[in-house]
Protein 1
Amino acid sequence: MEMKAPRGVRDILPDESWKWSYVINIAAKAMADYGFSEVHLPIFEHTELFSRGVGETTDIVEKEMYTFEDKGGRSITLRPEATAGMVRAALENNLCAQGSDAKLWCFGPMFRHERPQKGRYRQFYQVDCEHLGCAGAANDVEIIDLAAEIFRRLGLKNLEAVINSVGCPKCRPVYREALIKYFNNYKDKLCETCLDRLDRNPLRILDCKKPDCGAVADGAPDIYNSLCDECREHFEEVKRGLERLGIAYKINKRLVRGLDYYTKTAFEILSGDLGAQNAVCGGGRYDNLSDSIGGPHLPSVGFACGVDRIILVMEQQGLSFGERPKAKVYVAALDNSARGEAQILTHKLRSAGIAAQCDTENKSFKSQLKAAGNAKFACILGPDEIKNKVVTLKDMADGSQVSISDNELIDYIKDKLK
Ligand SMILES: [Zn+2]
Ligand SMILES: [Zn+2]
């Protein structure tokens, strides 16, 4: 039987992977410019980290986690998101001791058991960026600016930040009650999922994508009327900060995001033409995540962006991924006597940092030259060249040939490739 990958996962192959490198390198440079350092974290954690950190009543924890018992009888979960693990790592390694902050980012796979569809996989990849141990609104502004900066550098069109405040444990219960009271009047219009959420997590009804629920949600009470003074002032400061930096934003009172840990600021970055906007990134402030996993109070703000989605959107917008890396030089052996020398020369070119290929399957000179068509130069080696310690260098673009001595070859090619 031929083995196939499980449903909902895929292979990122060479035709695509070079685009991934491009996107991740651009994001990495932007995050470094903003003072963030890369970390590598485990892809599995104790299940409790997510049930307590992300929230028992979220879709992620209720339905979407890959959870299993390991051979030691512990309940283990493949991370469905990166923030909880990031906070766990910072606490465990004392990165935020004595009131210091930590700016961290990571890249890697996340796992959710969702219905697979275009652009959505059960193993998907995120760049995740977190500023841990920071309370002021200026940090929210900085993190939104950084997210937007990454997409500006990638060339995404018509960027817009969408922001909201989801309140805090002081003021959210008031809003919750107002929502339950309101939605109770429209029980006949809500979908089954929303009915189920009504008492446990009514905020989530606000971001239901079903049109009927959306119509009801549009008339729901405004959270801004319920915010406490601290949350209201924080939200005003975020708006003023974004305006200072010239970052276009919209307020969407229905933006609550699917994770319970958000407090105060929630945001998404959208890109595209009006009517066909795509969320390429989402994030927000999560002042109580650390408390909920047993740590000290650690106000923090961050975002995650899905790389699968970014690449899809960049392709839709016809954006450049830079130049696909390929061999610059192909070393062709004119006959069998030159094959050994051809491999030695290929090794020398590679050691000098020049991407080079040669034939290792005893192919004819003709088919070697055909393969060389993908390179910028072909180095041709035959008995005459070897005897005279030269190489015939053929420019594959115009077919011109020059004879160059062995010891000048590498500098010559490097110069030409500049
Ligand atoms: Zn509040
Ligand atoms: Zn619904």
Note: The pocket of zinc ion (ligand 2) is lined by residues 190-191, 193-194, 208, 210, 213 (CB under 6 Å).
Protein 2
Amino acid sequence: MPKKEKRILFIGDIIGEVGRNTVRKVLPGIKKRYKIDYVIANGEHLSARVGVEVEKLREMQAVGVDFFTTGNHVWREAGFEKEIGRKNMPIVRPANFLEKKPGHGFRIISTPIGKILIINLLGREGIKEKVTNPFKKADAILASQKDYDFVVVDFHAEMTSEKVAMGYHLDSHVAAVFGTHTHVPTADVRILPGGTAFVSDVGMTGPLNSVLGVKSEIIVERFLSGTGGKFEVSGDLPGVMNAVLLTLDGNNKAIDIKRIDRVVKN
Ligand SMILES: [Fe+2]
Ligand SMILES: [Fe+2]
């Protein structure tokens, strides 16, 4: 009997209440329709503001998200540095912070579709956080690990050139490189020549009529006059969910990657 295909959904940065409600509304139906085996989401804005709160992470687990990656905003919510280190917390933070940080930059997770090595890396171009070379860090992690069936990478980076370059760097070594951080979904989903599935940016899951999740009037004023006040996550509907669906064959080789985007009006 041929081995079963595996389907993994990767959801772009879930932002605040609108993002969480959108996931709650659309994820169960998507899981059923596409027979999804495992769901990973970038959760760096899971809290009501920016950052991660365990309670919100649990809420998203309850509606079907299995594991979370993060990015530059992972430490914004006071207290999460303590929580992330707790046993079996289903989350990774970027592996290449210069300073020593709690939690894990990669994890091998035993799932019904095999052992998945999930790696989270932060880009260097246009990112304030101090990080080491993400390309070399990816190499070091892959060289240090053996006990897995396939690898997925969340490369949380600003610049498309850095993300595309990471795709080629890891091509044939990992099942997928999912770009995140810009919150703007890109149309370049494809399988690279060596067999790695790639997208420059998955996008975001949050308020559609906003500037990357933040109230548009605040950001427009910032560009107009240099002021505009404190960033405030928009609570307006509709909500959008940007995601990509990765399909692997029975031998863990990527055979398809496609966008799954939904807008929820109420
Ligand atoms: Fe983000
Ligand atoms: Fe980010």
Note: Residues 44, 71-73, 156, 181 surround fe (ii) ion (ligand 2) (CB under 6 Å).
Protein 3
Amino acid sequence: MEPLITTKPPGPSAVAVLKRDAEVISQSMARHYPLVLERAQDVNLWDVDGNRYLDFTAGFAVMNVGWNHPKVVNAIQQQATLLTHGAFLAFCSETPVTFAQRLTEFLPPSLNRVCLTNSGAESVEAAMKLARYHTGGKYFIAFSNGFHGRTYGALSLTSTKAIQRAGFGPFLPVLHAPFPNPYRPQGCESTDASLAALEDIFKREVPAEEVAAIFVEPIQGEGGYIIPPKPFLREIRALCDELGILLVVDEVQTGCYRTGTFLASEQFGVKPDIVCLSKAIGGGLPLGAMVASEEVTTWLPGSHAGTFAGNNVACAAGLAVLDILSGEGFGAHVVDAGLHLLQRLNELQQDYDLIGDVRGMGLMAAIELVLSKETKEPATEERRVILNDAFENGLALLPAGESAIRFCPPLTIEKGDIDIGVEILRRSLKRVG
Ligand SMILES: Cc1ncc(COP(=O)(O)O)c(C=O)c1O
């Protein structure tokens, strides 16, 4: 199905909604183009004027099993007739328990205690609290250019863009070390330099005994889909083991087969002490999980909970998602489609000097736009124009980092749709020059 733009977006219905949106909704959100959604199915989005778009966003890596998957919709409908809110913090119900048990089957066996949440940031907050509680350490370490969410603890770890932190300090005590970036290895951005910076932190700023946890994304998501060198995560794991610091891996964006395996950290050969999940596990409903081992989960009844955590409808949707993900060949399809996407993007790079780098793992891929391949100066304005042009021609894309375009379609996408999307992007690149 070719995307079908019949009314130049934003059309009259979209303009009317956007006007009301501007009058009432907090202006703190940064929208990239004026898309007003009405419905969605698998890899297709429809706006309120009847235009159809091919989706390369999965709504920020949420709709991994495709938008409105019939099994997810059916599970939501069935559960809604029985029990929606179950006050899981005080009363037990079966669906959240089944979901948690099923989730642990996808994880390393040591990760067997599930704390249910409603979002990525809540999963991160829970991990910060548990790490402090269990270790007695007060400090956290995270990586520069990392993103972990926008609540106070999560925002303290986040260091992607100044605008996300400006005006909100002071923050929790977090020290940031550089994250290795293979495309921009100058400065101190190799694995060795990152480890040296960590050692320096322990020598000069805070002793390791006072550090509760190191938080890391296996691949930096909002920071630009930056894939560190293979040994990086293993080195961090070894350092945590040596110093008795917990390793928290934030798989909120990379999890649920986005990279071809349930957790991206599997591909780096690393087992976290705590893993944070959200986004795709709810199939479009707000659901998250912080999962740790029995030994680490030492907190007492009453020490952490939330009114909506363990919502029955969200967990029913999550169960349907896990069912779909466990289908024969799901991960293999992601790897195969991801290689196809990378090949198409590499072909684009041959034709357009604006594309400085192409990178990806599974269906988590990006191109980085630069003004010159020598200086690698970010082409931020060109990116804005390209994203808007692609949108006007029926392709939904999102930025990441300073000048990257991310490709994170529903994992159900077929090669034919990847080709259609890349061709729309090619035409946008041509128009920009
Ligand atoms: C790696 C990572 N952690 C945490 C979050 C925060 O998730 P949420 O927006 O659901 O709070 C995000 C969101 O993009 C993320 O990518």
Note: The chain is about 35% helix and 15% strand.
Protein 4
Amino acid sequence: MKNIYSTLFLVISLGFNINIQSQNLDADKCGFNLLSEEQKKSIVSTTNWGYGYSDLETDLGIWEQHALVDTSFIGYSELGRKLYVLNIKDESIVEEEFRVSIHARTHPNEVQGWYATNEMINILLSETVLAQRLLSKVVFSVIPMINPDGVELHKARENANGVDIESNWGTAMPEAEVEALKSFFTEKMESDLPIDVMLNMHSAYACKRYFVYHHENGTSYSYTSDEKRFIKSIQNYFEEGIEDWDYYVSWSNGTPTRYPESWFWRKYSDEVMALTYEDMNCSSAGDYEKTAFALLSGIADYFELEMLGLDYSPAISSSLNIYPNPASQSSSIHISAHTYRDVEYRIQLISTGGRIIDIPISQTSKSGSVIEFRASNLPKGLYMVKYSSEEITMLGRLLIN
Ligand SMILES: [Zn+2]
């Protein structure tokens, strides 16, 4: 096993001054405790780490306009902030088979875990092959910010009461955020469509992307085979970016009690693939779209979802987002195309009568840039939105009513 030692080696090689003897890695899978007091202080002085509660509420207003999204909240934080959840579901699903639950910002400064989650939302709301493949059988629940008080109070690791809610799951009286998430998980587990995959999104100071793998001493031999298959399925789509399953091995000394994953294991054993994913918590972090694509494609493969008869490769890691949709004639419509790399492209609207309208694009090659135009000159009706580049053509629908 190269797990613990390689993590420590990486941290040391980045120049952090740490004492190996005093570390208990199971107590801090994200590596915060390996930082010096000075480094910890500099992290806490940052405002919201680039994405605060009001940013989330703004985004919720946009997501809510999407036909696939239903937003609500699972409870309140210690200071009374709503703990929002997005349910992403295609109402036309003939047969719901799987549920995936994803939550981020348990540790407020680990915003990279959220950025990867945000790209997963973008992909799911696109009309790409991957989105269709997943939403033909899977319902997603996404909790973007489980610790909003910590985000707003600039606490790197804790909630308003100074408690690290990641390791607060084994106590008799857990914090409000843990209680809310626990109730949400319990309710879903008792429903007709229980959770099959739970992703707990963090980011690690070792500056690597990896899953926190649970050893068979704390799970079971057959579960570890599933864990390996799950991690490999995702890694297949981002070989150079995501570490092997044995990069970080936990629970070698048995099942702990304090984590969401151990709560799942103790209650539901191998029914749920519950894992922490660690993105990179460092200045060289990025590639969130690619990461999100790998996570979702890997989940689709893990569930053995049909390929929809189309050739499938990472080159199609693209998505087309259209908001609001349906739109009114007074709407300002936003179109953004996320592509594997920056390429020249054009966007056209095609009316049901065959009229083609070119949408002017100012930044012609940048992936993810938002094109905004007003619908005021367009007749009401259904339009095909066509994105075309030399690599790919993507089609979306836009309804103006
Ligand atoms: Zn963390």
Note: Residues 18 and 219 are 30 Å apart (CA to CA).
